[in-house]
Structure formats: C-alpha cells, structure tokens
Amino acid sequence: MNPENYSFVREYNLKQITPMLHFQHAENGACIRPSELKPKLDRFLLSKPVKRSDDNKIPKMWRNNGQEKALNYKVFIQPEDSTAVSKSDTINRDIKLHEISIRKGAKEEKEKEKFRIKNEYRYKGIDGLFFGNMVKSKESQYNALVRASYKETVFYEKPIKLKIVCHIPGLLEHIDNHIDEFFAITNFGTRQNKGFGSFLIIRDFGLTDVNKKLRAGGYCYIRATIDGRSSITNEEGFKIASAVYSVMKGGINFPSKDSKSTGLYIKGYIQRQYLDDIGLNNIGSDKAFVKSDILTVAPKKRDSLRNIAEKPDDEPERSRSYTDYLYVRALLGVADHVEYRDKDGLREGVVSISSDKVERFPSIITIKITDEAVYFIISDPDKEIFGKDFEFSSDVKTGSIKTPDSFDKNRFKSDFITYFNSVRSRFENSKIYEMCTNVNLT
Fold it and tell me: H or E segment at 142?
C-alpha cells in the first residue's frame, strides 16, 4: 500500500434507528459521544484477528502511547443537520399528569384530561413500558425530582457523520473491515442494552444487514419479526422488545379489570421453565425463594385471593416443594432490589439483593432494533457471576442463595423460542401487546 496514494481519513454516514437517551439532551448537537464510542470500538477491534499478522493480534505500534486497551486513532462525530432533530418531552408530560392526579375533582373528568395529555405527548414522551423514568407520585418534591432525574431522547432524522483519522494504514484498514459489524451489535447512551441508541452504517447498497453480520460473526441471537411483514416501525420494535424480554425474564402480569376481561399473565421463562428445561425440576428460582422464605404467605390466604385459573403457569408451583433455590435471574442482570406491590395485598415490601462478591452484573442480552426486525443478542455470562452467594433481605427476614454454576446460551435460545411460541397467543388479551400474537422468533 503506497502511503502517497492513501487517505488517512475514513468517513462514514450513520443512520439513527432508535432514539438515544442522552444525559445532555437539551444541548444543541447532543449525539454519540466520542468518549463512549472510541473505548467500545477499541475493545471490539482488539477482539478481532488482524490480517497479515503472524499471531492475528493487534501490533504494539497500533496502540496509543503503549496503552494496552487504547488504539492510535481519533474519532469525530457530527450530525449532518443538528436542527433536524426530535427530542422527547417526558418531563413536562409526567409533571402535567401528576398535577392532574393530585388535584381535587371528579375521577371521570381527571381521566379524560389525562387521556388528552397522553395523546398530546404520544410522540414526544417515552413510554413507561420501555424505560423506567420513575419518581413515586407520593414524593413531596415530585416536580423537582422529575426534572433532576429524568433523561430524554434525541433522534436525528438526517445522517450523522463519523470521521476516523488514523496515520497507520493497517489499523485504518482493520477499522474499515469491522466497523459495520461493530454498529450491528452496539448501541449507545443510557439503557442501550434495551434497544435505545441504535445506529447503522449507510453503504451504497443500503444499510448494514444486521442479520447477515450476526450470522457471519457466529453470534447467538434471536430474531423477532412480524408474520407477513418485511419491516417494522420504531414503536412496534420497542413493543416487541418489551414483550419478548418480559416473557424472558420477569414475566407479564396485567390483572383483569372486571369479570368480562381475562387479563394477561405469562410467567417469566427464566423463573421456572428454564430450570425445568435443563433438568433442575427440584430447584426453585429466586422468585420462588422470596415467596417461600422472605415474604411468606399462608397457603390458605393465597388460595383465597388468587384464582388458579387466572394464573395457569403458577398452578404447578403451588404443589411443588424444592430441595434448593438458584438466583437464575442474575444471568439477565443483577438488580439491587425487587419491589412487591400486589394489588390484592398478598405481598408487599421491598426485598434488597446484595453480594460481597459481585457489585453489578449487566444482562447478557443486548437488544438491537432495526427497520426490519428486533434482535436479542445473547452473550456468554462473565464467569465471575457463577456460583456466587446473594443475600435477599426484607424488613422481616433474610436469606441467601447462589447463582447457577453454568449457562448454555444456545440451549437457552432454542428452549426460550419454544416457550415463547407456546404462550404468545395470550397477548390477544392485552390491548398493549395484542400485536405480539403475530411476532415470530427464529
């Protein structure tokens, strides 16, 4: 390669696919920060084999001043048109809704006004299904807390310019060879693993084909599409992401509002069926542990309040006894607490979750939303999470259970798809998720 005929700059056009939650959303030109993009890209490039290298590894001369994890190039990011941007306004929406809720007046009139506000902000506010911008309504300083804690989204309608400057031809070639795959598996900003902040490279032939890149890269992933459709909207993408991930982890519980409605109840796959699928029928999940040992309820009281027919997935557990329990949900991300607020008053309270061995552990699932499908990319858990003790404690009781010793992501993928297909017809009982009856997982 002749340096005299070589440009030390590579320029790419990025298309923003989903809104990005940005802590500087109010600033003009707020976008992907180079300080977030470059370390991520460095880690990705360091994991890829290098052409024409004896050991397939990154040469030392490519590193930035001898730093092991930083490569010698610079990135510059600039929206093509910083005025062609849509920004959410969830702060003002929620403050208005809260003010309606706390003031005196007829309930029917207040509900009508809330409906009007929600419609007004339909495309300007973040749906609570997709992001936990949450301040408790009882907070005396509600408005101030909302303004201080909420994050809003930015979405650029026109391309975003990414410029990479590098004076090492081999490194620049390495970047060019892998940058499409990098954006196919990476999101940016807050809540990025839930689908926010998705961008793709624009090529002459169109956008990067995420499915093709994931398949070629040997990734373990689930692809969610709508039967008979070749494209999806942003709103549909987030709804699919929310439904599938909820069925995968925490489950869905929308109680029936009256005797005429059925409600929607789907038990989280990892809470029970996953353990059955891997042959641990006598082991209970962390949720079963909380119900059995931390927030206990007398069986007679439970049966009098809960109709078995309304929760078919719960029925087997009522007659089960377990020899031990596992904190299986830790594989999909460690939480610092779980709050129980049963509408029928069966269980109420906050259960704190902690470990002196593991502080935080991210979910092994990254959700990538595109214009044609939603992808759930499944990574191997960090080995540090296996076999660790976690303490569960309420105001009354405290107990400990361990995380699993192993995890087979390919087995998890295939068994979860089977489980989802067996329960997806239940979505017809929910106005929110009704469209998900036609969601197909592969």
Answer: helix 142-149
